[in-house]
Design a protein that fits this description.
Structural class: alpha/beta
Bound molecules: magnesium ion
Distance between the termini: 19 Å
Mean pLDDT: 97
CATH class of the largest domain: Alpha Beta
Strand content: 15-25%
Shape: globular
Radius of gyration: 20 Å
Strand order of the largest sheet: 5-6-7-8-9-10-11-12
Number of helices: 14
Length: 354
């Protein structure tokens, strides 16, 4: 099965409610879809999310990276030469991880179709059902409490609370949500780099003393402030999760060596796809660091690829794949089923789109 052509298109999906973090506000998903055509008629599908604030990529930069750099590097190659294809994609252009991720997942889709196997089974097949959290956007306390109650009523048991935009009000927000949803609901907090190291320690300790029972705090400080991450991790009892600080396997090694976090959040848009994500997951596993599988604002196309990867790995113990739950409707049929907080893998070959 040889790669014959790569076609770049668009995928759009309006959100149920605006997605707000310390870094941005988004009303509708506008992403890139990628179709890798082969000489036997099979098509692999991928998606890239332009998250300029995090990966530096835009719709224009992603399509240019794919059309002008990635596509010419792998056209004509055989799907069986997986490691060589991945090496060529990686070397075709510096960074541009979301563009690489879209092509990477389309190649994995084809590889699994070629072997007539669901992708998650080919990658290790550790489990076939995942439980995801859902994001609560950063807003004033009243609105966040209301959104949290709606999410619990929708059937979600784990909430990821976005904070970091107004540090002075963050303890109040989180405690109000805990009081409203009770202790049977798991709460994760994501500051999206919005706190200073000392602010983070103060906020997290206050939450600990208040008995807010937070499962983890994600990326409390700036992504490049590894000394700050280390300071927060060393001076609090709550688990700290590195997100924006870890893109590559090398970043994972650095975070682990510096003990700058307790967990690592793997997102295909940061790693450049499944091939590099596997390395990060295995490095973390060998060092006793559990991983979360996360996503950017992505539709069912790329979140399904992430779900296959998450299901395949023992070391991915936390799942934040709420993209499809935030969209009004899916742009594609087939793939894993997303039913409130349950994601179930199916027996369809590849990623499973019909
Ligand atoms: Mg995050």
């Amino acid at each position: 099965m040889k790669i014959k052509n790569i076609v770049v298109g668009k995928v759009e999906a309006p959100l149920i409610t605006p997605f707000k973090t310390a870094l941005r506000t988004v009303h509708s998903i506008h992403n890139i879809a990628v179709y890798v055509h082969t000489d036997v008629g099979q098509i692999g599908i991928g998606e890239a999310a332009p998250t300029a604030a995090i990966t530096g990529e835009t719709l224009g930069s992603i399509s240019c990276a794919i059309e002008q750099h990635i596509k010419p590097a792998i056209i004509g190659m055989d799907i069986e030469e997986m490691a060589q294809i991945m090496e060529r994609i990686d070397n075709s252009i510096y960074q541009n991880t979301s563009a690489k991720a879209a092509v990477d997942m389309a190649i994995f889709d084809l590889f699994a179709k070629h072997h007539q196997s669901p992708l998650y089974q080919l990658l290790g097949g550790y489990r076939k059902e995942l439980v995801t959290d859902i994001t609560i956007s950063v807003n004033d306390t009243e609105e966040m409490v209301k959104d949290s109650i709606v999410a619990v009523q929708r059937g979600f048991h784990i909430l990821k609370i976005k904070v970091g935009k107004d540090p002075a009000g963050d303890v109040e927000r989180i405690v109000a949500i805990r009081d409203a949803v009770g202790h049977a609901i798991t709460l994760r907090v994501d500051a999206n780099q919005g706190w200073s190291p000392k602010q983070a320690v103060q906020i997290i300790r206050t939450l600990e003393d208040a008995g807010a029972n937070i499962e983890l705090v994600e990326q409390p400080v700036h992504c490049h402030d590894l000394a700050g991450m280390q300071f927060v991790t060393a001076n609090t009892l709550t688990n700290i999760l590195a997100d924006e600080s870890v893109f590559s396997p090398k970043d994972a090694v650095t975070i682990i060596e510096k003990r700058a976090a307790d967990f690592i959040n793997i997102k295909l848009m940061k790693t450049g796809g499944i091939y590099q994500a596997q390395k990060i997951c295995h490095i973390a596993e060998a060092n006793g660091i559990a991983c979360m599988m996360g996503c950017m604002l992505e539709t069912k196309i790329s979140v399904s690829a992430a779900a296959h990867f998450a299901a395949s790995q023992k070391n991915i113990t936390m799942v934040d794949l709420d993209g499809p739950s935030l969209c009004m409707k899916d742009p594609i049929a087939g793939g894993p089923t997303f039913d409130n907080d349950r994601i179930r893998l199916t027996d369809a070959a590849g990623i499973g789109f019909s």
